[in-house]
């Protein structure tokens, strides 16, 4: 399986923004991109007889999608397997399961009425990029930290220079980034003013020539142009991407957070305080994790 993270990793391996030849990077066989991300190394299948609770066990551990064989040869077996041969498959994602649970929220009201803070769904370790971070540098950060998206926060005197921040994420003997950019990054992101989101999906539908120029842009400029569709010439995802921030508070109910994620079709909801400062994140993995724990304890 190839994901956008695999593609981002492949781009990031190309070097500095001015040195990346996207035409060359994008002309390689797709097989050479497989496995750049950890998720791409394993292909999970779910037997059609598997219960939703058993599906939650897998999705609550950070697996985002799995294949369901249409013609299963294991009719009396349920559960998750690494492989099961079939001529046809359907894809089941975290969002599919969350949408299903949202449709049956009345049956889960005792759980979903509780706040995400109370349920322990908020993850406080957040790695954020500042608005003046270059796109190529943000890609490198996301690659190093294995992130699908990063919050964009306002710069302050306390933020760490981007090169130094990346070194804190990897073996100091590994040269990850040596560039002239003075953009800055906050290794946690907490307590910073949230102003945007930079996601791997922002790059969808962007032709190579435009993406080549975009690598030099500040991430906040890139996301603003993406929201206007100026990068997309084919009416693709970028032209339809909404840049409205999807946020909640720690006291927001789980049901409301689920609604926000499903309605906006986003894979994470940023948690902010009442001044708009970043507190943490609630991802689909976190929502499904706490729902599974609640269902098992009931």
From TrEMBL:
SMART domains: CBS (SM00116). Coiled coil: none annotated. Pfam families: CBS. One of its GO terms (cellular component) is cytoplasm. Keywords: CBS domain, Repeat. Residues 241-298 form the CBS domain. This is CBS domain-containing protein.
């Amino acid at each position: 399986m190839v994901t956008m993270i695999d593609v981002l990793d492949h781009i990031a391996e190309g070097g500095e923004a001015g040195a990346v030849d996207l035409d060359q990077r994008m002309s390689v066989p797709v097989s050479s991109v497989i496995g750049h991300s950890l998720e791409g190394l394993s292909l999970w299948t779910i037997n059609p007889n598997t219960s939703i609770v058993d599906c939650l066990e897998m999705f609550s551990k950070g697996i985002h999608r799995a294949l369901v064989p249409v013609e299963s040869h294991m009719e009396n077996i349920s559960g998750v397997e690494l492989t099961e041969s079939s001529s046809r498959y359907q894809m089941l994602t975290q969002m599919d399961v969350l949408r299903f649970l949202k449709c049956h929220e009345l049956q889960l009201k005792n759980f979903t009425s509780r706040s995400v803070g109370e349920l322990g769904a908020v993850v406080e370790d957040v790695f954020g990029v500042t608005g003046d971070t270059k796109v190529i540098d943000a890609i490198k950060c996301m690659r190093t930290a294995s992130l699908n998206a990063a919050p964009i926060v306002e710069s302050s005197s306390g933020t760490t220079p981007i090169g130094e921040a990346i070194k804190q994420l990897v073996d100091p003997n590994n040269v990850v980034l040596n560039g002239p950019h003075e953009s800055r990054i906050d290794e946690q992101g907490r307590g910073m003013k949230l102003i945007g989101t930079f996601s791997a999906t922002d790059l969808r539908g962007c032709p190579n020539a435009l993406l080549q120029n975009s690598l030099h842009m500040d991430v906040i400029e890139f996301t603003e142009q993406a929201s206007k569709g100026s990068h997309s010439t084919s009416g693709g995802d970028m032209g339809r991407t909404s840049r409205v921030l999807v946020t909640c508070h720690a006291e927001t109910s789980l049901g409301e957070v689920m609604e926000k994620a499903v309605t906006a079709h986003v894979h994470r909801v940023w948690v902010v305080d009442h001044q708009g400062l970043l507190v943490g994140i609630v991802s689909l993995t976190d929502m499904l994790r706490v729902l599974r724990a609640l269902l098992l304890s009931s």
